[in-house]
Write a structure and sequence with these properties.
The protein is α/β, with parallel strands linked by helices. Helices cover about 40% and strands about 15% of the residues. The longest helix is centred in the last third of the chain and has 18 residues.
């Protein structure tokens, strides 16, 4: 099934110096704009954050300060990026909780208008969690192949959790309880 779009839909992801939108900065972005006619346009850039990148973040995304010394700052890219995103709906994975607040904050710091109030916002992670529940009942079915009777009674939930953990240890042989 193809996406049926009335206006362009932009999928995006950000790599950052850390997890706090009010103090951290973008170090890399990628945007994939899908037009209603199916045409695709991409824009991917590394960005000099002008602040240090946390060691934890660098270990995750593999981008270090020395990689960005010649990259433009977000402020230099902001107006062009805002034009690229103009009139587009936005999509991503976990974008409502992380990427979108980070992007909005970066535009605010630069004084570039970026209003999301009239856009459709699609978070694939939210859809995934709606369609693939992350509950004890779902875990019991997934790992044990059984329907959880009396869910939310303390005893049934306790016994089901024990069975789920035992099944996880069997399924993921390298997992130890101390890792959980």
């Amino acid at each position: 099934m193809q996406l049926k779009l009335k206006c362009p839909l932009v999928f995006f992801d950000l790599e950052t110096t850390g997890l706090n939108p009010s103090k951290d900065r973008i170090v890399e972005y990628s945007f994939l704009k899908i037009m209603p006619n199916g045409e695709r346009v991409t824009q991917t850039r590394r960005v000099n954050p002008t602040i240090p990148i946390s060691a934890e973040s660098s270990m995750i995304h593999g981008i270090y300060e020395e990689d960005l010394k010649d990259a433009p700052t977000f402020k230099l890219l902001a107006k062009e990026l805002a034009r690229f995103l103009e009139g587009c709906d936005l999509a991503g994975f976990n974008m409502l909780r992380f990427d979108l607040p980070m992007l909005v904050e970066e535009f605010l710091r630069c004084g570039v208008s970026f209003d999301v109030s009239n856009r459709k916002l699609v978070d694939a992670q939210k859809i995934f969690h709606m369609m693939e529940p992350r509950t004890l009942k779902a875990a019991y079915m997934f790992y044990c192949g059984k329907d959880l009777e009396d869910a939310h009674s303390a005893e049934a939930d306790t016994f089901a959790t024990a069975e789920v953990l035992e099944a996880q240890v069997r399924k993921y042989a390298g997992v130890s309880i101390k890792d959980a």
